Hints:
The chain is an all-alpha fold. The protein folds into two domains: 1-73, Multidrug-efflux Transporter Regulator, Chain: A, Domain 2, CATH 1.10.1660.10; 89-135, no CATH class. 65% of the residues lie in helices and 0% in strands. The model has no long low-confidence stretch (mean pLDDT 87). InterPro entries: DNA-bd_dom_put_sf, MerR-type_HTH_dom, MerR_fam. This is MerR family transcriptional regulator.
Amino acid sequence: MATAQDMRIGDAAAALGVETHVLRHWESMGLLAPPRSSSGHRSYTEEILDYARVIQKLQRTGLSLDQIRQLGRGGCEDRQAMLAQRRAEVRERIALLEATDRFLGHLAACDHPVISECPQCSDFAARSHSRREFR
């Protein structure tokens, strides 16, 4: 494998665990701008690889590539607003998963022969219907 200073796209993709078309796509979207050699080959430095790793992390948080691009271009207030919205979505998802876990835990221990006749199951269903805990 080449060094980070002269790493070509195939080596960079392997180092990041992605396909080369992913790096080309990120470049086409304006997320990465690897310099080109005199022969036109992309050259991936450690700094560019680190930025690509940040993109991967941000994708894992559920941000789209367009949102990631906006983070890099927007001001501090825009970034804070976008991230506050994403964090609210994550907290909502966590609450849904916790409620789902409680419900499944109860179902696993429920000894009612017909689950719909269980008062606690009915209570879970009534709360989830009114608060949209379960979808």
